[in-house]
Design goal:
Enzyme class: oxidoreductase
Structural class: mainly alpha
GO cellular component, one term: cytosol
CATH architecture: Up-down Bundle
CATH superfamily: Ferritin, core subunit, four-helix bundle
Function: Iron-storage protein, whose ferroxidase center binds Fe(2+), oxidizes it using dioxygen to Fe(3+), and participates in the subsequent Fe(3+) oxide mineral core formation within the central cavity of the BFR protein shell.
CATH topology: Ferritin
Distance between the termini: 50 Å
Shape: elongated
Largest sheet: none
Oligomer: single chain
Number of helices: 5
Helix content: over 70%
Number of strands: 0
Radius of gyration: 17 Å
Binding site for Fe cation 3: 50
CATH class: Mainly Alpha
Keywords: Heme, Iron, Iron storage, Metal-binding
Strand content: under 5%
Length: 155
């Protein structure tokens, strides 16, 4: 099924965002594993896998619409040197993702592409859940301090 070039461009832009997120989260996850912050490592690793599934769904949609998935493009990554930096960088990235998915939903609806709209809405809900989790972690750090927070993330 041939699609509108604007939708294909948006799908590829979202794909670049997801592939960038996968890489950023994998690096953060492995850094946490290296620091023996096993609980944090596991949660971030699961988020990386979820972002990978988003990329997979976007690729499938692009192919369905007879487009070419661009998997070689990544956006700049922002790897944090410490856990607080990582969470803050991830928060900024997720806020950007929510904004771009909201725009993509509106674009797809205006162009009558309800299949792409539904995909964008589905991923948008996941990205909002990521923000909620990150904000909860930042609140915990604010309330108990970074050292107490990190102690809870071990083992």
């Amino acid at each position: 099924m041939k699609s509108n070039d604007q939708i294909l461009e948006t799908l590829n832009e979202q794909l670049a965002e997801e592939l960038t997120a996968v890489n950023q989260y994998i690096v953060h996850s492995e850094m946490c594993a290296n620091w023996n912050l096993d609980r944090l490592h596991n949660v971030i690793e699961k988020r990386a896998i979820e972002e990978m599934r988003h990329a997979e769904m976007l690729i499938a949609r692009i192919l369905f619409l007879e487009g070419k998935p661009v998997v070689s493009k990544l956006n700049p990554m922002h790897v944090g040197a410490e856990v607080l930096d990582q969470l803050q960088n991830d928060h900024v990235a997720e806020l950007g993702a929510v904004k771009s998915y909201n725009t993509a939903v509106q674009q797809a609806a205006s162009l009558g592409d309800n299949g792409s709209r539904a995909l964008f809405e589905s991923i948008l809900k996941d990205e909002e859940a990521h923000i909620d989790w990150i904000e909860a972690q930042l609140d915990q750090i604010n309330q108990m301090g970074i050292q107490n927070y990190l102690a809870q993330q071990m083992g």
